[in-house]
Amino acid sequence: MKRIYVEEKWCLACRLCEYNCAFANSGKDDMVKALKGAKIHPRIRVEQAGGISFAVSCRHCRDPLCQRACISGALSLKDGQVHIDENKCVGCYTCIMVCPYGAIMPSEKGAVQKCDLCMQNHNGEPACVAGCPNRAIVYEEREDEPCAM
Amino acid sequence: MRYVIVGSSHAAVGCVEAIRERDPQGEIVLFSKEGHRPYSRPLISYYLQGKTDRERMLLRGGDFFERMNVRAHLGCAVAAIDAAGHYVLDETGEKTPYDKLLIATGSVPFVPPMEGLEKVQNKQGFLTLDDALELEGRLNPQSRVLIIGAGLIGMKCAEGIAHRVQQVDVVEMAPRVLPAVLDTEAAALVQARMEKENIRFHLGTSAERFDAAEALLKNGEKIPFDLLVLAVGVRPNTALLEQAGAAVQRGVQVDEGMRTTLKDVYAAGDVALSHDSTDDDKEKVLAILPNAYLQGRVAGLNMAGGQDRLPEVFPMNAGGFFDLHMISAGSTRGEEIRVEQETGLKKLYVRDDKLVGFLMLGDVERAGIYTALIRDKTPLHSIDFALIAKAPQLMAFSGQERARKLGGKAI
Ligand SMILES: Cc1cc2nc3c(=O)[nH]c(=O)nc-3n(C[C@H](O)[C@H](O)[C@H](O)COP(=O)(O)OP(=O)(O)OC[C@H]3O[C@@H](n4cnc5c(N)ncnc54)[C@H](O)[C@@H]3O)c2cc1C
């Protein structure tokens, strides 16, 4: 299955991925209207310290602890991808407790949010990948599948 | 192959899904005392609070049994297991033979003897959807509700009804709320948050005796009430397995593959014992949902011919009261490291160069990075502990480890 992988040596910490993510999931069609002056809530987050930076988003683990532990059944697995049903989620944060990557986060709506590989929005392919100027984030199939345990 | 499952809650759902991953054909027969399709048990308080509804509470949607091709007998309890004969006997007297059997009967409420309890008409537990519906049917905006027990269940019940009744009183024997999960400092913060919502606490005391609509506490207080909720505690529902001759010590003894001491009989969830990896692998009942699902899953994989083992388990709780979130995991036995936060509270517990536990209140973002340190028993000298203590982050790991975590590179 195709997943998002990050190559930290190419990451410039420009945070375009965060902006592209927030825009793709804003439901708006104008980036300026969607993001200008607003506090953004992207599902991908850049960590940066000293000269090192890299982006972190849901790994879509082969054995996803978040989905196993979800108390409400809001997290599900479809064709290997981990999806969140915001309508079912009650915001108990059990998934935040168990995700070893810290890749699920509270959203503005009370439910949690996570990367869904831009499958639910209009993008159709991950916006963070498409907009990365340095190919520090790629979307491809690799042999070693991420795993939660 | 015929699989029989007793129970239809979280452990049972994990088992069904796992069996179907490995065996799309085998026959699955399921019994549940409760007449409902699998629903989320912890959501009963959210239901009362209006944060979910009957439809959304269904764990896997309404058609789960059809999709999984399960013959489900809902509202039909199993009365006995005949381990030698390889069949279960249900309450209608019907025998159902099995090749592999899972017992996922969960917890039952534990009610210590209390004087005068028989005089109280409107009393109940708070464990099942039926309990929540019963409570909902009884309460009205004028109700005064008395809850005995400030453990997770009593506290969740209080939160669920606080805005629907006139008054909620909670009595707890321990000197603080959530005594099994929180320390004194954290408990005080949660208590203060709850008190803002019309909930009163009576701590370090217990009910001396009941009258029809009044409780007399050991500390002399008298609390009038219209409804009484008993949330003192739960214990593993081991009756079936005990009677069938399985090894039971409080919970049912199981091996790493969730096999009981009876041939072809498995147990999972609140009914089973676990080994707490943060407390010298001591046998405990870890009555928490992630454990129930994972155990059910491992049981299912093995019932369908696998050789799977349960991963490391330890206590963990996520949740919160109103807008105050809390996450705790592992053990507090170890050096306590208090990390100053802008808001809330954070404490880490370190023993033998390992993180063995943590408690976060308020800001809980990325807590799972800490949980993974506990699960993986990561030697703390191999990461930048000062950095990760400040905020959970992958930056604290070596570049090589990050390449494995994020880059799909084997090391
Ligand atoms: C109000 C509340 C809030 C909670 N909140 C949390 C939380 O936030 N996080 C967390 O981790 N955990 C929480 N828990 C605990 C969690 O719900 C349990 O750990 C979990 O439900 C255990 O699942 P289980 O499948 O082992 O058993 P249970 O959920 O107890 O289900 C037992 C099943 O067995 C069936 N059964 C019992 N006896 C028989 C019989 N003789 N014949 C046929 N069927 C039978 C019942 O009908 C039921 O389907 C909460 C519990 C409650 C009550």
Account of the protein in words:
The complex is a heterodimer of chains A (149) and B (411). Chain A has helices at 16-24, 31-35, 65-69, 94-98, 127-131; strands spanning 2-6, 45-49, 52-56, 75-78, 81-84, 105-106, 112-113, 137-141. Chain A has 149 residues and is of the alpha+beta class. Chain A has a single domain (2-141), classed as Alpha-Beta Plaits (2-Layer Sandwich), CATH 3.30.70. In chain A, β2 (45-49) and β3 form a beta hairpin. The longest helix of chain A is centred in the N-terminal third of the chain and has 9 residues, at 16-24. Chain A is globular. Chain B contains eleven helices and 27 strands. Chain B has a five-stranded parallel beta sheet. In chain B, strands 9-16-10-11-12 form a five-stranded parallel beta sheet. In chain B, strands 23-24-27-26-25 form a five-stranded antiparallel beta sheet. By secondary structure, chain B is α/β, with parallel strands linked by helices. Chain B has helices at residues 10-22, 44-49, 64-67, 129-138, 152-161, 184-195, 239-244, 289-303, 367-376, 385-390, 399-407; strands spanning 2-6, 27-32, 70-74, 78-82, 87-90, 95-97, 100-103, 107-109, 123-124, 144-148, 167-172, 199-203, 207-211, 214-217, 222-224, 227-230, 234-236, 248-249, 251-252, 265-267, 274-276, 282-284, 316-321, 324-330, 335-338, 345-351, 354-361. At the A-B interface, β1, β2, β3, α3 and α4 of A face α8, β23, β24, α9 and α11 of B. The complex binds flavin-adenine dinucleotide. The site of flavin-adenine dinucleotide has 37 residues of chain B, from α1, β2, α2, α5 and α8.
Task: State the secondary-structure class of chain B.
Answer: alpha/beta
Which molecules are bound besides the chains? flavin-adenine dinucleotide
| Relative strand content of chain A | 15-25%
The helix/strand order of chain A is EHHEEHEEHEEHE
